[in-house]
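Hi R.,

Here's the chain you asked about this morning:
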Amino acid sequence: MNKNLNTRILGAAAASWVLGLAAPQLSRAAVSDEDFNALKTMVQQLQQAHQQDQQQIQTLEQKLGETQLLATNAVEQASAVALAQATPPPLARHNFTMVGDAEIQYAKTYGNGTHNGQMLADFAPIFLFQANQSILFEAGFDVTVNNGTSDGNYLVNGNQGGTYTHDTGSSTSVSMSFGQMDYLVNDYVTFVGGYMLLPLGTYSERTAGWLNKIPDDPYGVEFLPGAGAGAQLRGSYPLGESGQMLTYSAYCANGPSSVDGTGNAYTISGGNTIANLDLGGNVGIQNNGNTGNLHSAPSGGGRIGWFIPWGGAHKDLELGVSGQSGTWDDNNSYVWSACVLDAALHFGPNVEIKGEYIDTWYNTADAGTIRPWGAWVQAGYKLAGLNLDLPIISDIELIGRYDQENNGLGTVAGNNLGSDSRRYTMGYVYYITNTLLFEGDYEFIHNSIIGGTPQPSNQLIFQLSYGF
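And here is the predicted structure, written out as tokens:
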């Protein structure tokens, strides 16, 4: 643009120089009007072109200034974002998320007159809150749909008409499975406090819910409290450089209690004789509103585990022993104790074998020592290990389980409260996705008697479960 302008100015100067040279000759040759007007027109055109060039230069300078301003603003905004991410405000220094699972079940039972139907609809959210690098809070809930209850009697014209034979309506129950705070003291120690999951075995912490590859719980786990109010220290410590790990936990908790506060083996509730031991009722608040433990002596317990990798990735063995002991009656006269042995073995990513042996015992005032026990072993094989390159087949895992239990109770006042059961289960898991599972199993149940009531001899269960 400047080059053209210089060319036109030099052209005008040359024209003027030519005219100057011709001036002395004007006396000899007059300039015609036509030539003068042409020269005048050329000069005017050069002036107009010069003005246009100046306007274009101003426009370009203005656009360049705007571009520099936008670039400067972009750099300032990027710097502000980076600074905000590096130093977030105090109220934003946390993470909150919700995980959990949901299941629905269909069951067909044989041998006790039970009808087929949808037997479970469960939603179990877990809320996780991380306040900072060291403080975490977690709480789990179970939301289930149940049949409603009736008072057992109905009136006809104001008079007693009879008793209901069915429950009435439906209801939704909400219960807190656990609610605990975790404080990471260092790499080897974590403090846990609140209504916490108890490390009696590994089932309640690692396998319950949708993580369980069989729709129902194994026998024996109901003899253990799944959670308790108290405090715990837990962690792990590496053993050498081979990948072996020692895991530990030690806790104190309120412990179990009794339905009527006594140390008797049985009590009467609603005219029925029931076991007096209450594994989950002692959480520190009494029905009369008084706070405090139902008995003054807390229980103590813990677990020691040994994790041993071997032979490469996904090949490992874990062994654990855990236990708890403490009084269970209001007078602190009788003791409830438990011991659990657990093991888990992995032969690569496709083969898993695990199980537990559960032994509990408690002293009573009227029936001596009662000793409920249970055991289960479960194995799984993922057909992906066959390398068949068949999508549906490769997404199936075959499951088998054997479990057995005895509640240690006998006959009281003509009521048989004893239970002695063995069960064989064959099933599968179809992984629709990694978190959406379609499970099914067939159970063979033997020698199951609870309170003299016949139990199902066989059972077919399907379950759709989703973990999120």
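One quick note: The radius of gyration is 41 Å.

Cheers,
M.
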